[in-house]
Amino acid sequence: MTTDRLARTSTFAPTRRHLLGLGLALAGAAALDLAPSLRLLGPAEAAAPDVAQKIADHFSAVKTMTGEFVQFGPKGEQTGGKFFLERPGKIRFNYDGASDFRVISDGQSVVILNKKLRTSDLYPLSKTPLKLLLDDRIDLSGGKVTGIKQEDDLTTIQLADKQVFGNSKITMMFDPKTYELRQWTITDAQGKDTTVMIFNTREGVNFAADTFKIDYTANRELNAKKSNR
């Protein structure tokens, strides 16, 4: 993804579906023409290829990470911000812009918070693709790996798990030398892609105690007011 491409892409205030795609979720797999080039794995290859599990084990060993992200919606819409990750199960995305969007997982639930519109949507972490990314150990057994492509500069792995997130898929791209995660795409049940690219990352960082805190009382109050309108 070039700087010129980023500059030409219009910014947008992400909808709840875009935000859900982010974590419940490459600049769009279709735009980069990645999905057709993946080598799809058949039933006889249900066990994760060695390279895929090695990459997953390396990423699992990253217990804390922070950095910046750029997110692309299905039509190339762009937004960005900062993210914070702590295993197992915790992540936070702070979106830039006046809408003040937040996506937070505390290890049990994922909340999508729009402070400007005073909306707060809560989902079980166990039913989102974020669970695969945030597990203490990323287990690729049981046929979760549905496609893989190895190139000199990127290793692309596609995962699916109907028990976790239905017909959605997640496609992750790693540096083949360092095994560092570069970006991922969530493809929803309608075939629409939401892509996240990460950069300026740092590992082994410490976070404030409330970084991944979800205010469940505020969530209930906001939704009670919404239902009474």
Structural description of this entry:
It is a single chain. With 229 residues, this protein is an alpha+beta fold. Helix content is 22%, strand content 35%. It contains 7 helices and 12 strands. Strand 2 and strand 3 form a beta hairpin.
Low-pLDDT runs: 1-36, 42-47
Number of strands: 12
In N-to-C order, the SSE pattern is HHHEHEEEEEEHEEHEEEH
Largest sheet: 12 strands, antiparallel
What strand order characterises the main sheet? 1-8-9-10-11-12-2-3-4-5-6-7
Write the layout of secondary structure elements.
Layout: H1 3-8, H2 16-23, H3 29-32, E1 39-40, H4 50-60, E2 64-72, E3 78-86, E4 90-95, E5 101-106, E6 109-114, E7 119-124, H5 130-134, E8 145-150, E9 155-160, H6 162-165, E10 169-174, E11 181-187, E12 193-203, H7 216-227
Antiparallel strand pairs: 1-8, 2-3, 2-12, 3-4, 4-5, 5-6, 6-7, 8-9, 9-10, 10-11, 11-12
How is this structure best summarized?
The protein has 229 residues and is an alpha+beta fold.
Pick out its properties.
229 residues, alpha+beta, 12-stranded antiparallel sheet, 22% helix, 35% strand
